[in-house]
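**User:** Here is a favour to ask of a fellow structure person. Please take any protein you like and set down a full record of it. No explanation is needed for now; the record alone will do.

**Assistant:**
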Amino acid sequence: MNYRQLGNSGLKISDIGFGCMSLGDQLEENKILIDRAIELGINFFDTADLYQKGENETMLGKILGSRRKNFIIATKVGNQWRKDGSGWDWNPGKEYILSSVEGSLKRLNTDYIDLYQLHGGTIEDNIDETIEAFELLKKQGRIRHYGISSIRPNVIREYVKRSAIVSVMMQYSLLDRRPEETCMPLLKEKNIGVLSRGSLAKGILVNKPAENYLNYQSGEVEKLKKIVAQLSNEKRTPAQTAIKFVLQQSAISSAVVGIRTISQLEEVAGASHAPWLKESEMKTLKEVLQPNRYDQHR
């Protein structure tokens, strides 16, 4: 496994991160997966208080147990479950963040969170108040660093300008190259790490039938899938090719991938040491489709 620095945080994280949102409800099955991920060198686990109404954090805490200090745990806050469980509401308020962290710490069975992320964000939020909450938690030692999970360029710019975020999690893949236009260059310049999600575009780039995706029609998606397959070989599977494309963007700190089975895990983890795409292969992949751009929240 290869490791990269997460922005200016000083944290060294595996370039393949484990996206815990994909975990099921069975603790023992999840333990088998996470233990194998650890054997393969993955040290970065990303969860959220939203997932499974907190049970996701609880399971991760139980599985890591006394080994917790050896790993980098990232979780998220900002989506508040309604009391009747019918859904959640957006709440980036200082008071809510300061109270929510206590629940996450307890569920994760830890006294600190390595990376606490705002789970979304709008330009209408009281951003300064949100930042105050994270800064206070950092000062108290409850969190080591903070970041945001957002695909909105206008929101990202404000946090870059006003805060000490060390990371931004955003969707990025061969089928979603929107971050290339402004977000990744800005974050690279400011030494803020990018945590990519959706590298395999819900599996469409690999083993699921082509379908419409963002602004692309299914025929265009199928065309790209064929090129990905053509550029793969016995040393690099199509999934690894798609992930390698993401990892070859200089702003990326880790490709965070949702994993459900041991076979998926081993293939995804193998992308870390799979052969790099040649410059000509990168060029071919980039030229298959016209890069998409953000239409909103610019």
Remarks:
- Residues 94-108 form the longest helix (15 residues).
